[in-house]
Amino acid sequence: MAQSADTAAEHQRILREVESTDTNCLGPTLRSVYDGQEHGLFMEKLEGRIRNHDREIEKMCNHHFQGFVDSITELLKVRGEAQKLKGQVIETNRKLRNDGKELLATMDELTQCRLQQRNIATTIDKLTHCLPVLEMYSRLQEQMRAKRYYPALCTLEQLEQSCLPRAGEYRFCAIMAENIPVLRAHIRDVSMSDLKDFLESIRKHSDKIGETAIKQAQVQSSRDNAITHQQRAGSGRRLRKEAGSGTEVDQSGGSPLSEQDSGILDVEDEEDDVSNCALQLKTWTNWFLTHAQSGSRDTFENYYRKQRRKQARLVLQPNSNMHETLEGYRRYFNQIVGFFVVEDHVLHTTRGLVNRAYVEELWELALSKTIAALRTHSSYCTDPDLILDLKNLIVLFADTLQGYGFPTSQLFDMLLELRDQYGEVLLKKWNRFFRQILDQDNYSPIPVATQEEYRRIAGQFPFQDPELEKMSFPKKFPFSEFVPKVYSQLKEFIYACLKYSEDLHLSSTEIDDMIRKSTNLLLTRTLSNCLQYAIKKKNVGLAELVQIIVNTTHLEMSCHYLEEFISNITNVPPHMVNATKLYGTSTFKDARHAAEEEIYTNLNLKIDQFLQLADYDWMAAQGGGQASDYLSDLIAFLCSTFSVFTHLPGKVAQTACMSACKHLSTSLLQLLLEADVRQVSMGALQQFNVDVKECESEYSLTLGLLLDLFIQWDWSTYLADYGRPSCKYLRVNPHTALALLEKMKDTSRKNSVFSQFRKNERDKQKLIDTVVRQLRNLIAAHQS
């Protein structure tokens, strides 16, 4: 029972599959039926299921039959209308086909037009790419014929890189591409030739370019100075009223390092040579930019640098006679400036032809050679005005190149070295001035007859004397023309030193120190030597020496005015700790002392001249009652001379008087003791004593005591009291006494001084021998 139930369920499943499954897929289902043992039973069930479906179909047909009949009836009615509709559709189709023929023809025409339009657009596009190539090639040919090689090279680069690749592969493009290397080689050759011409041109016109650059720098400097002066004009008076130290002007003057082209070669109103050279420079630098892109850069760069190095060596070699005129230095500087202006322009416009390291290397070479040349040639210069002009030219040269970014500090260091040479040349020049002043001076006080003359002299020399001002005209200044002239020249020398220190970028303190040191050299060396020359020269009189002492005294008192003068022009207070002091006081003191010594020497020479007139009879039996004539004249001369000395300052007059008297006393003693006087009589000693008494001088006391000792024969007192402070003959030297006694000891001549005492000659001789022996013992005792 269970098996039959399972079979029935399986048959029901298969039937459902048959009913629900597509006929194409019934094979497996039916095979499962035939594979089993109950296919007969299944067939029975299948037939039963078919009968059930037939009954249902029949029921449905019966149910819908009337509707079907009605539908057929209506369909028959519609057939006639369908026939009419068919006829209408056929007619409409015929008409549509007839009308479509025109449309198809129009569509064919439209298609043909669209094709033509597309072809035209393609042609226009191709021509759009080809025409620029043809036009550019035509322009290239025209530029080549016109020898406009830089535009031609630019056109060639544009044609090769832009136009030909866009034009496509055409035969004419291939021909053009093949011709491009030939054209480029031709342009390169022509450019190299033009480069050679350009290098030759800038070599010829470097001085003109440099001259233009220096002029522009000078104009700019003048403008800057004018602006600075205007900015400070309002505060100038206030600053001068303050402590005396004004704000220092920033004299650096140079613009910062040039990082762009200065534009010196952009001017259009300069000389034709400069403009042509500038045009060539711009043209060729543009060529280089293009050649640099086309691969010819190394060739042009190497050639340019090699040739420019050769030109640099030529430019830096000065002429052998450059030092003779300022124009020689100016041409030298113009060439150097022109050379480096071109290099600066090339550096900032070619972007690779030269680089900063190359230009700096050239500048270092130029700087060292320029400084060496300047040192050599400036050493030959002996004109301070030329050195000053050269200094100003070097400053302008340095400022010009500094504006292009080249360091110039070594040039200013060299100018400080040149300052020493300038000082030496100034000293030589002022030596001539001082010599001329001293030679032309009359060594007499300056007479003034009017107030204007007095003010003129007082304006030249700082002299103040209330007593002299109160005196009525005419009157005299105590000094001669030498004083105001020398003082004026001292100020002129200071001004000359100040001129050199301008524009050297020095501080006020450095300028003040430089001026003071130079002025000290002028005082201690030049002026001192000139004063010594004036004092020591031949035929200088005592009156001139006296006036020199007066002059140097007043010049010495004016030294502090010179100090103030220097402080005023440098704005540096004289009381600063590090301020150099002037040595004028010591200079004038030394000159005054030399003049005093010369006075003493001249007086002694005059005394010696008078003494040469002395004519003593050393064997006279008896002396005269009055002084010798030569001595009277000598005393009259000394009295008149000493009256002039009363105008001398200090103890000069007293010292001169004492020196003259001392020399007179010494000379008289030497006259008595000289070797030519072999024997002296008592009468001669008496006459000599009269002359000595006539002198009435303290320093003739020694000679008088000596004569008293012999005339009075007071040897016992001399020998007993010698060496004591209270000794009567303290000033008598035993050597001198011994020498004179030896002259009296000789009795070989019959005119012996003791010939009148022939009876006692032996006793006197023994007495002289005794005194001589005692004097020798006295001398020996004091020497031991």
Polypeptide structure, described:
Strands 1-2 form a two-stranded antiparallel ribbon. The model is unreliable at 232-262, 266-270 and 747-757 (pLDDT under 50). With 784 residues, the protein is an all-alpha fold. The protein has helices spanning 2-20, 27-35, 39-145, 149-167, 171-241, 272-294, 297-315, 326-350, 356-378, 384-403, 409-440, 451-460, 466-470, 482-501, 508-536, 542-557, 559-570, 584-611, 629-644, 652-673, 682-695, 701-712, 715-721, 734-745, 761-783; strands at residues 447-448, 475-476. The N and C termini lie far apart (189 Å). Residues 410-743 form the Exocyst complex subunit EXOC6/Sec15 C-terminal domain. InterPro entries: EXOC6/Sec15, EXOC6/Sec15_C, EXOC6/Sec15_C_dom1, EXOC6_Sec15_N, EXOC6PINT-1/Sec15/Tip20_C_dom2. Belongs to the SEC15 family. Residues 45-214 form the Exocyst complex component EXOC6/Sec15 N-terminal domain.
Which regions are unreliable across 5 or more consecutive residues at pLDDT < 50?
232-262, 266-270, 747-757
Q: Mean pLDDT, rounded to whole units?
A: 77
Beta-strand content bin: under 5%
Q: Number of DSSP helices?
A: 25
Oligomer: single chain
Main beta-sheet strand count, sense and barrel state = 2 strands, antiparallel
Provide the spatial order of strands within the biggest beta sheet: 1-2
String of helices and strands: HHHHHHHHHHHEHHEHHHHHHHHHHHH
The N- to C-terminal Cα distance equals: 189 Å
| Helical fraction | over 70%
What structural category arises from helix and sheet content? Answer: mainly alpha
Number of strands: 2
